[in-house]
Amino acid sequence: MRFHGYDTSWSRRWVVLSIIFLGFGMLANGQGYLKAKGPIIVNEKNEKVILRGMGLGGWMLQEGYMFRLGNIGQQYKIRAKIQDLVGPERTETIYQSWINSHTRKADMDSLAKWGFNSVRLPMHYQLYTLAVEDEPVAGQQTWKEEGFALTDSLLAWCKANRMYLILDLHATPGGQGHDLPISDRHPERPSLWESEANRQKTIALWRKLAERYANEPWIGGYDIINEPNWGFEDPADKIGNKEKTNAPLKKLMQDITAAIREVDKKHIIIIEGNAFGNNYNGILPAWDDNMVLSFHKYGNFPDRASIAKFLELRAQYNVPLWMGESGENSNNWYQQVISLVESNDIGWAWWQQKKIGINQPMEMKVAPGYQAILDYWNGKAPAPGANEAYQSLLDWVSATRAENTVVHPDVIDAMFRQIHSTAAIPFKQHVITNSTSIAAVDYDLGRNGYAYNDLDTASYHYTPGVNTRGNRGGAYRNDGTDIRKADGEYEVFSIEDGEWLQYTVEVPKAGNYQIGIKAAKDSGDAVCSILVNGRKATADVAVPATEGWQQVAMGQVKLTKGTHRIRIYFNKGGCLLQQLTFKKV
């Protein structure tokens, strides 16, 4: 893996953390088939299993937002755009390379090392069977080996790492809702709910999958329809939030269950309610004794009230819960959500392992050539030549490979270590010598309030009236701290009153050290001070409200040999921060 700006000393520390994360995962690695037992999931030893999983979004099914293509949306539209640039033959080569590069054994090895004990595979039905419109004989099912072979390979990699694989039909025949990208839906064609042929194909596909994997204990379960979002009673209810009976959804899930049970009596069947897994009206009680209820959680508060309705369903119907998707937020939110669900005996699967951006374990880098294509598709630049575009798109594919991604240990730390510990630990080793500079963005790893303090730590984009964002710059780290890149350098900005950053440092030689900061005016007249090991060590210092970067002397402190925690505290925010400096005097 390539580590984002870390030195070799951090790499060694990361090995230690990996062992810790692996330990968390191994505690939940069960033996044999998973099954529902009352309100929990257990293994064949009757031990409770908390699934800690990762969703492989983007591999079999591309959603535009993952690659800064949100204005395009569905995968078939992305593919058409690519074909316009490079032609059909090269487009086919690009997509075959994508399938072979995006997810490999190296990815599963990394997930297991970090502590994950399960994987959720978002499947696109067209890798397994033809679209209804393309079947040569109406009503027949033509099977494609490609999808099954890919699933076989993934299962082998998961088994080698003792991780459960959960199959998730993310894109159903026809598409299961009005959110078009999540199912690669063609809106001009009949949806899953408007076509009996699409429903029969969905049922047949699940029977085929269950028949193939019936005797595979490392298959954790079948997540049969991802995020239905459809108004059956009221077509204007686009996401199905107001649906009272959900009768068509329940019938199809029952039909799928019956088809699976014809060939597989062992595996868990996972169901999702309407409105993206949130509306279970009319669906329960469960019709199978090995069933799990899934819900998805995004952009709302990480408190018990936010999952109370699902806890009530669990208590009423005596079925386990699984948070089948969550993520797309800040580290602080991740820690709080995972702590919340695990404390209520609920496993989880995060969304997602890799994309462009910082809020997942692996970040795809954006090459200049790919950016030029984005600029063209957004009307900001001329079209690149076919050969140039082809090479840029191959570079885009290459950016998905595990070894070419930027790994974000802060995300992983929040999802595993921080669930069990409030301790702040070094993000990067800082050794204070005669003259030392520390990048402001290399503050400690840990929870908000322990490694740093930020007043806006998460995005609540599905909570009316709450307009926070977390890291407003979307760069470098996924904590609440606002970080952006300007003129090639990372800087902390949008600093508010009472915020602070902490740095664990090693001092080989005791002495007096002059501490300074490299700062600039942002929005006001900032005032800050330095704390050493929790005690105020300098007077309050005003950052001159002039334009441009300047060195600001904070004062002289005496540091003994050993480890110290240096904290810069902002009595009053309003400046930019780029560095802390130490000079022995």
TrEMBL record:
This is Carbohydrate binding protein with CBM6 domain. InterPro entries: CBM6, Cellulose-bd_IV, Galactose-bd-like_sf, GH, Glyco_hydro_5, Glycosyl_hydrolase_5. SUPFAM superfamilies: (Trans)glycosidases (SSF51445), Galactose-binding domain-like (SSF49785). GO terms for biological process: cellulose catabolic process. Gene3D superfamilies: Galactose-binding domain-like (2.60.120.260), Glycosidases (3.20.20.80). Transmembrane segments: none annotated. The lineage of its organism: Bacteria, Pseudomonadati, Bacteroidota, Chitinophagia, Chitinophagales. Belongs to the glycosyl hydrolase 5 (cellulase A) family. Residues 453-583 form the CBM6 domain. Keywords: Carbohydrate metabolism, Cellulose degradation, Glycosidase, Hydrolase, Polysaccharide degradation, Signal. PANTHER family: ENDOGLUCANASE, PUTATIVE (AFU_ORTHOLOGUE AFUA_5G01830)-RELATED, GLUCAN ENDO-1,6-BETA-GLUCOSIDASE B.
